[in-house]
Amino acid sequence: MFKPYFFLLIVLFYCFPTQAQHPTKPTSSEIYQAIEKLSFLGSVLYVAAHPDDENTRLISHMANGVKSRTAYLSLTRGDGGQNLIGPELKELLGVIRTQELLAARRIDGGEQLFTRADDFGYSKHPDETLAIWNENEVLSDVVWAIRNFQPDIIINRFDHRSPGTTHGHHTSSALLSLKAFDYAADKSKFPNQLKSVDVWQAKREFFNTSWWFYGSKEKFDAADKTNQYAVEVGDFYPALGLSNPEIAALSRSAHKSQGFGNTGTRGSDFEYLELIKGDAPKDINNIFEGIDTSWNRVKNGQRIGEVLKEVQDNYDFKNPSASIPKLVEAYKLVQKLENSHWKTLKSEDLKNVIAACAGLFLEAVAESNLATPNSKVTLELEAINRSPQNMRLNAISLSDGTTIEKNTDLKFNHSHRFESQINIPSTTSYSTPYWLETKGTLGMYKVDDQSLIGLPKTPKESTATFHVSIAGEPLSYTKPIVYKTNDPVKGEVYKPFEIVPVVAAHIAEPVIIFADDQQKDIQVIVKANRNTIEGYVQLAHPQGWQVYPEKQNITITNKGEEQSLIFTVIPPKNQSEGLLTPMVHVGDEVFNKKLVEINYDHIPFQMVLLPNASKVVRLDIKKKGENIGYIEGAGDVVPESLRQIGYNVAIIKPDDINAETLSRFDAIVVGIRAYNTVDALKFKQQQLFDFVEQGGNLIVQYNTNGGLVVDQLAPYPLKLSRDRVTDENSEVVLLNTTNELLNYPNKITTKDFEGWVQERGLYFPNQWSKEFTPVLSMHDKNESPKEGSLLVAKYGKGHYIYTGLSFFREFPEGVAGAYRLFANMLSVGKESLKTSQQLKN
Ligand SMILES: [Zn+2]
What we know:
By secondary structure, the protein is α+β, with helices and mostly antiparallel strands. The longest helix is centred in the N-terminal third of the chain and has 19 residues, at 90-108. The site of zinc ion has 5 residues, from loops.
């Protein structure tokens, strides 16, 4: 029978931050916790929509306090959000957030699952969400997760009864989870899945409510709680030295791209579960009431429970290896059971606990972190038993089919290190997130292989399996091949071992804007991932555009080396757009993908293979002014985008904000969420206002209303709201067609709002003083018009503009109208200046 990969993801040992990529090395008390967990046969599936929706206090309590198998099913990977730590957006942000969820689960002891649903951006109602997602496919994936994971209890983060009160993805997650509870148990639903999984009936389903859903603590206190169960989550775990909320905070803090650093608390605290499906637990203090979570749950399991009880009772914290004989006895008994879910899971857990008790360290390290198909890689293997337990290393089998016979005793604390080679067959797939391999739709990833659906990451194909005998019992441990190196500052650094194409090329800019009909030189960088590359590069281009030369040869001697080529691109006369793709010909093969590296300390190093295409846009745009000062906020690519259309953009550090610096610029632009993230701006607001008063032009992009570092965002009263327009195609009404912003130097029409992506904008002000002029009006379906997306006010001799329009999303996509409108914002006031100069002359 097909064996789902979920079993490879079991989190048995804790791993505290800073060691995202290192192998876990459990302490004696962590091993004891894992032994306790061996005797709990019950599971919880927590369901929500995004990375960060999950309640880490409840997940940690279930995993560490109750010792239940616990997973978080996040329907999406969070592609649609903002990134506080770097430039990655969309699918690359989804890769980061996937890894952040995995990092969180390594800390709180849970497992992580997904569906194929794509986080396409904000939606206000589940109807809208389920129309953009393929509802049936997402439901199928939730059912698939339930049938694989076989949860006794399902807990929803969101309320299925309150559509429209929170993100449409949120309510949808609850609606689909509720439906899947019944569907998973129904043979007639998604029958194709039943080739590899059985139907599964969960026992009960809860909604993880809190005062937040009631609007206030007072309302929550007053509410009817007949159907609610209070779960104490303030546990303290002496074995870990941490309270449950402290672990939950460490886990939550893994969401660094969202800036969700969290401080732990101590002391009694409660989570509330409202029963929404299944029978009510008779014991209000035990949500597993009525479910046998002991070894008696499994036929002939009773004796295993007894043996493991003995292991617990006699556990020697000074010598965990003393438990090995009894653990091996339990393992043998488990092998005699009929095949079942719990047999597979607990066999794996037992093996890992036995290895941990022995201090058994097994590792296969490659000479490089990268290899190409059809190559040979040298491995350094290490096996060491750090216990007095008798142990033999029988053989090591590599994923290429090679078996290395060893037949050697693993003597106490005696390291066996040896070299070998592994073949990387020509059929090996490239290492890249499986859900990004094929182009999906706005709402869905496309994954053809059913066995991959739901997995947090692509399973590693290159592995080494160590076959050992412990207390006479043969046990096999499969380890993905890794790469490690010593960094003079960080020390030991691990990286995944990845299979990459022989060569990858990229154009530095994903979007290249031609603000006039002048040709541009485009740099193509070709990187070799093996020695000795010879071939040529052509640049595929849209019709009407010209590229010279037609092709260029490449010769690269060393792996890792790059060659840079310059192509000249000539745009057409009129507004036009299309794609440029470097096609690298080596031998008979053509390579047209680019490799993107994601490198942050809190998650493992990631390589992502993406379609290699840069968008070229010939814009019809006029500009006034040249020098722009940019005050960075949470991170956006607006400065690079403005440089592309010919502005000189200088980044101004908060410390350098003073009258003299500001006076050098034609306009100052403040990056997204700067007043939420840059503390130092607190002391600079007056200087910015003075700059405006003396004739400057200040453009402030969106901020959220929570946690502003200044009391006054603008020189006049302006109040931010949560108003947003999420439909990127919603109609835009030009409120005042004679307003300078819509006329100078570019004539803006509704055509300029075509082709926008993801949304119109967010966190628009909903109250402003009379000095402000609203320029645009827009709204989502069934909502009142929102006029706060673009506001301009004259202050002294200058202008202040506040905009919640999502320029930071439109620029990287080369949306022409967004550039034309922004050029007008940068030029505001320059027309009257021009007129007065003309008068003087
Ligand atoms: Zn969410």
